[in-house]
Design brief:
The structure holds 2 protein chains of 2 kinds. Chain A is mainly α. In chain A, 54% of the residues lie in helices and 0% in strands. Classes of the chains: A mainly alpha, B alpha/beta. The complex binds iron/sulfur cluster (3 copies).
Amino acid sequence: MSILKNLPQRKDEQYPSMIIAGAREHGEQPHELANKIFSEMRGDFRYKEFVLGCLNCGECTTGCPAARFYDFSPREMLQVAMSDDPDVLLDAMQEKIWACCQCYTCNMRCRFGNDIAGIISVMRELAVRNGLESAKEVLKPASRSLLKVMTHGTQVSPDMIQPDFFIDWDPKAVSKTGDLIALRKAIPIDVLQVTDSSWEVSMQTALELAQIYEESGVLDMLRSLDPDLVEMIVDIISDWKDEFEEMKEKFGI
Amino acid sequence: MICLASPRILVIGGGPAGLSASIDLFEAGADVVLVEKEDVLGGTPKKLHYSLIAPDLKPVEEVLDPLIRQVESSAVTKKLGTVVSAIENGNGHVNVTFTSNGGKEEAVFDAVILATGFTHWDPHKKYEYGYGVYPDVIDFKDFEKMLSDDNLARPSNGKMPARIGWLLCVGSRDRQVGKFYCCRVGCAVSIKQAMEVKKKHPEIDTYIYYMDIRTYGFWEDQLYWKAMEDLNVKFIRGRIGAISKGDEGSLVAMAEDTILQRPSEVPFDMLVLTTGMEASQGTVEMAKLLGLEMEEHGFVRPLEADSLPVHTTVENVFVAGTATGPKAIPDAITEGSAAAIKAFNYVRRSRGKKATGRSMKKDARAYAE
Ligand code: SF4
Ligand code: SF4
Ligand code: SF4
């Protein structure tokens, strides 16, 4: 029993919707996934630090480059983060959160001291972890870069400069891919003579990176989004592991 | 024998609070010294040439000059162009050293009233508003002067402005600059300024950008409603977050209209920043000399903010006006009178007892009761 008077009489399964509430039929419960994501966000240790309150001044949105081009506003994102309605959160995660380019201007402006860009990136993380369609959609064009990063530690490699990959690139860039191997060999820096990564990555480094991705849970996180990609990464890495073991045996390390 | 002498009370600061404290102390029969570092009385409102004073929209002269004249014609000892450079407070006696062009001078008092006031926050620190970069971005104390000089010409080209904007809460309610509190008067003063503009120049467009309009009490209808209903002052709910140069030397104010939830860009000829209040240098220095506690916003801590607002943590030191936080002129005047009677009664009462001048909350509280 609370000693405070005049509190609303709520049952546990009823959700207060104080700031922004999603549209729901009377008595209808929020989406199950929404509930899960909502409690994950509220339970994240960063939530308390990032989301303090809001004066609705709009200065964050004034400086936001994404707000100029999309139906998006950091003020709204902060309100979404504060909303007690899980459906409101899930709704914003379907599309809006991906409009942000993480420039942090909003944080520089916010007189309340919110970390708006930070809470947006927490929401994105949750979208990835929970395999939301929106995250799949956003990551699709980047899957080749992801494969490179997670196997070689470098994002773009010379052999990715292909018409089907960078369709909107300058046609001249594409025409240069013909004698790519020769061109790279002409660079007088040893580590740059490869074409399948930006520079030559030692196998040991690649394997250490792979271990970090595995142990930090990044691979698991990706699995819900793109299982095929993860399969490919795991295959490549296990091949390398075998190769590395053979090498160690051969040279007696 | 000492009981027969008049209480000797020092008032530091000759603004609205200090003036009113001096008058009341003098009328009660105290021996009053009023020290003011400027060469004129009247404090910040006079020094910075404020225009009309809310709520009755009377010129500052009409409000403060009667107080100044009363002090000037009384036997209150006025020390203008003088600062307090040292204080020793013990055994119920305050030994004060005054410093002026004429050199040093010492005197002993039974109690002190601190009325050293505030300063307007410096908007240079909010670089995104372009103060000091764009000549037509000015702060509201400068605009008060322009109003009282009846000269609204744009600083950049000397032409009359066609549209003026106000941005409220600059250096107030802002964690980024460490000013968490509300300035209490900014909304009212800005609206009053817009009304002054509209009354004299109805053709000038006036916009006020706000987060909340805080026109307490009667200011609501006297200023806010009247500005809207009678004078067509426009209000935009949202803050200007960036200012850039537009056509023909205009300033484009970028904001989010948070009601329409849309970006808004409006060209202005002049933008006025409604800056907040902070404790003046004098307040900070004197509080240190007197050994007063400060509160979390940087002002002097009253002994009890609710019930003993003009007592301080030192038993024979009293405080009035904006030294304890943002306040309007009428409130500062009221507090000056309150501090006067509290100081006067304290001295009378303590002469019967063994006063110590110790810095102890319990003691002061006991005296206060
Ligand atoms: S970090 Fe994102 S939300 Fe913030 S200003 Fe940049 S684009 Fe906008
Ligand atoms: S800047 Fe901060 S306080 Fe202002 S609307 Fe954005 S999140 Fe809210
Ligand atoms: S009085 Fe008005 S302008 Fe001043 S801080 Fe408060 S809300 Fe802002």
